[in-house]
Every structure is written in C-alpha cells, then in structure tokens.
Design goal:
Blueprint (H helix, E strand, L loop, with lengths): L1 E6 L7 H4 L8 E2 L2 E2 H10 L5 E6 L3 H14 L2 E5 L4 E5 L7 E6 L6 H7 L1 H4 L4 E5 L2 E3 L3 H11 L3 E6 L7 E5 L2 E6 L9 E8 L17 H8 L3 E6 L3 E3 L3 H12 L13
Parallel strand pairs: 1-4, 1-8, 4-7, 10-14
Antiparallel strand pairs: 2-3, 5-6, 8-13, 9-15, 10-13, 11-12
Length: 259
Amino acid sequence: MKVVLLAGGLGTRLSEETATRPKPMVDIGGFPIIWHLMNIYASAGFEEFVIALGYKQDVIKDYFRSVYSTNNDFLVDFATGHIEFRERARLNWKVHLIDTGLETMTGGRIKRLQPLIGNETFMCTYGDGLASIDVKRLLEFHRSKKRMATITAVRPPARFGTLEIDGDRVVQFAEKPQTSEGWINGGFFVFEPGIFDLIEGDETLLEHEPLMQLARDGQLSVYKHEGFWQPMDTLREKRLLEDLWASGSPPWVRDNRAV
C-alpha cells in the first residue's frame, strides 16, 4: 500500500526555517521531519511512499538522491568510474518523488497522484506533524468501517500551562500539555480511490469540499488517537520536537530505524 506525503506547501508559518528549504526538510535531531514521518509508517510495514512536491522540490529530490550514499561507505574506482558500496544500513523504502505544482492546493495534489495510485486504498498525511499513532491499527479500523475515508482526530496541544490548585497552593503544574477536551484533524488519513472523484482540480482544498462532502454523505469515519501528537508550525514547536528526540525516547518512534 502506498503512503502519500503532502510536502509541497510554502510553510509560511515557519518562515525562519523555510526560506531556503521546504518545511518537510526542517531537521529534527539531524534528520528531516519527513524522514521521521516515513519511519512511523515503515515501522508498521508500509514502505512505499509517494511524496507530493511543490515549493523548493529540488531540496527534497537532492536529499533522497543522496541519502543512500550518505549513509553507507563506498569505494570509487576512478579508472572505471565504478562505485562499490559497503553497506552499513539499508532501508527497504521505495520513494516516488512527484511534482504536483507550486501553487496546487492539498486536494489538487492528491488528484494529480491518481495515475500513480490507481484504483487502490492509500494512506495520506501532511509533511509536518508527528504522532505516536499506530498506523496499522488505523488501517484496520478504516477497513472495518467500510467507508470511503477515515480521518484521525487528536487532542490539540494547549496554548498555556495548567495549574491544579488547592487553596493558595499549587499541587500540580503541567507545561502546555495536550488538552483533555475537543478534537481536531490530526492529518493521518486513509482513503479509498473514490476520493479522486470528489476533487475538482488544483484549486481544491482537501479540508473543504471533499471532506465536507464525505461527512454529509456519511462516508467519513473518525479514528480517535489519544496519544502524542505535535505539529511543527513554530520555532518553539521545532525546539520541543528536538528536545524530545534528544531525550532518547521520542514518543513518535515505535521502531528506531535511524541510519
């Protein structure tokens, strides 16, 4: 099964990092966030990816073109031009890098991938948020409901720290935890190929007409993820993810496949 990664946006909310590279290529612990996302899926056995490119796509293409040689030793024979790799690490990933246009909206990017995906169920996510989600269980849930699409609902991170108070004494302090009420779109989807028929063209936002129509038709299931979820929209959120990675036990890692 193919996993679509939407990686073509401008990333304007993180402009300090995205002036020279697309948002999915912003590093967390020395690896681009898109690599962390791919590991989430690969740890569950899903290793064929379709990356929908747009803004500064050459940066993503260059990364995947060189990642194999960067992470392995090799011998170069200048007489013949032959390169012999001495492998230290191998990932069994297949990565399709597809130009879906500079100004194409999220739905339009998915529509442009239809010839490659074909008449198959596929998973999809944005290229800028991490979670401790079990994507295999998400897929099983989707199949059990027999609807056209499944969206993952998550608890949003709170904007402020919370205090538990007893009289004039603080008994518990939590620094910006995830809220215990309310659900938002967490960005991990499963789609049947019928989704393509609901997308008119490049100007279509996935989050508008297609998902709204699916909800009206009773064809949109919701998978509730109670665990860790964190977008990367600000420098503070980037630093938070970096601190979690540096801790040695980042909550989104189920099987550490770092190369």
